[in-house]
Amino acid sequence: MFANRLIALLLPFAAPLPAAEKPNVLLILVDDLKPTLGCYGDPVAKTPALDRFAASGLRFDLAYCNQAVCAPSRFTYMLGSRSTSTGLYGLGSQLREALPDAVTLPQYFRRHGYKAESLGKIYHIGHGNHGDPESWSVPHFKDAVVEYVLPESTGGKLTREEAYFNNARTGVPNRELPRGAAWEAPEAADEAYADGRVAAEAIRRLRAAAEADTPFFIAVGFARPHLPFTAPKKYWDLYDPAKLPMPEVLEFPADSPAVAHKRGGEINQYKPVPERGTIGPALSRQLIHGYYASTSYMDAQAGKVLDELRRLELDRNTIVVLWGDHGFHLGDHRIWTKHTNYEQANRIPLVIRAPGVTRSGTSTRQVAETVDLYPTLAALAGLPAPDGPQPIDGDNLVPVLEDPSARVSDHAYHAYPRGKLGRAIRTERYRLVEWRNPGTPADRAEIELYDYLEDPHETRNHAAGRPEVVRQLRAILNRHPRPKRQ
User: Could you give the 3-state DSSP secondary structure of residue 480?
Assistant: First the structure.
């Protein structure tokens, strides 16, 4: 059946595939997951399930989010539009207020005969956001992002981050609520936490889909390794804390502008992290341990879903995508979490398996970005190229899936607002960041340039010493549309 779909890909005016021959789609979305996976060469990570999955498809080694924060990053996936095209920059941004007629990725598949379902964290729900019911064929299966098993982690009270993620109205400012624990490691079953329950529900949905005549589009969102690092003790026990990687660079890049820097933020909402001041080596090691333990816990839950897909023999006709919504600083530059334009916050894992198209055990250095997934999935399913009405900013990556040495673009684009808007392009070698707001003259912009061949840890901003590289990369950046204001 995939042979017919390949014909549809090669013939731009081919008729849509019959329902019985349409491939299914399974999306695995993971919150705050950087490439801390064995399949990405991490020597410490214990991630056997996702390593097996990556070995069955194509791994993108240079994949990037379009903005390193949860809600905007997920909007870029579901819309195929960058935040600079939509103005959806914030956690509380409302999709349907900004783009009432937008056709999201699952809506697009629904229009072509698919049943679209979502479980766990797909859109960012919290901070005033309630998801997008219009995207799905059936109501979203929501579960927690911030949750605890041990009473001592909260003192029996609603914590700041629980309130944010539950859209709770307490009558007092969230900053006056107590902080919850940054981690816990109870003797508990996997389903004591949301990711275990989401995996169990996803398995039930796959079994129902196997009996149905309608092709499915199922998005499964896992919360860990998002803070707090709450996972059953057996996943913590996989790691020797003394052997965990510690940050190598503890200062901001030399000659970098202050607008690019970050201290504190999300990490300070959890105890025992100091609300002000630095995080010392012992606490850093504990937090890093929590991140790896949480990643292994998520890996086990994703593995259950992938194993069931295979057991049901649905893997033969299902496109599967693994995607992290953005990266995560683990103390590098003394930064924690995301919300920057640096490599650690923006590089993501991306693996695609498309039966009949991708080959097992392959990888590519094609620079890719989140918005590429909308047109790519449409093409893989034999659907017409999407045309909005929102801007479709991404590239169709199918030529790269077929031939990992192929190239469809020479850079990825991302942005982060921090008073000024920092727009960035990432080529295979360089990242250029231009900090200025719309209307500000170009000669008043603050510029960063990083060279990942000679300086992979971003120890220095090279812009002043390489004016010709800056000129070339700014010319590429200037090809992009004028950004919408925040």
Answer: coil
Which residue bears the tokens 């103390």? 331
User: Would 187 be classed as within a structural domain?
Assistant: yes
Round the average pLDDT of the chain to a whole number and report it.
Answer: 95
In the three-class reduction of DSSP (H, G, I as helix; E, B as strand; rest coil), residue 466 is classed as: coil
Write out the residue range of the structural domain in which residue 208 sits: 24-410
Query: Based on the number of CB atoms within 10 Å of its own CB, is 238 exposed (0-12), middle (13-18) or buried (19 or more)?
Result: middle
CA distance 414 to 426: 8
Specify the CATH number for the domain of residue 274. Answer: 3.40.720.10
Looking at the domain assignment, is residue 151 inside a domain?
yes
Helix (H) or strand (E) holding 86, with range, is: helix 83-86
The one catalytic residue among 124, 226, 326, 339: 124
DSSP string, 278-290: ---HHHHHHHHHH
Answer yes or no: 124 catalytic.
yes
In the chain, the percentage of residues whose pLDDT exceeds 90 is 92
Q: Which of the residues 65, 70, 326, 411 is marked catalytic?
A: 70
Residues 6+ apart with CB under 8 A from 311: none
* Cβ density class 428-454: b for 16+ within 10 Å, e for less: eebbbbbbbeeeeeeeebbbbbbebee
pLDDT tens, residue by residue, 334-372: 999 999 999 999 999 999 999 999 999 999 999 999 999
CB 351 within 8 A of CB 40: no
Total number of domains constituting the chain = 1
| CA-only gyration radius of the chain, Å | 22
Q: Is residue 445 part of a domain?
A: no
Q: Which pTM was predicted?
A: 0.95
Does residue 451 lie in a domain region? no
Residue type for position 69: V
pLDDT at residue number 298: 99
Q: Name the DSSP letter for residue 467.
A: H
Provide the token pair at 388: 């909005």
C-alpha to C-alpha distance for 355 and 348, rounded to whole angstroms = 23
Q: Quote the CA–CA distance of 470 and 476 in Å, as a whole number.
A: 10
Find where tokens 């040495």 sit.
405
Report strand pairing: 362-364 vs 58-64: parallel
Tell me how far apart the alpha carbons of residues 122 and 29 are, in angstroms, rounded to a whole number: 7
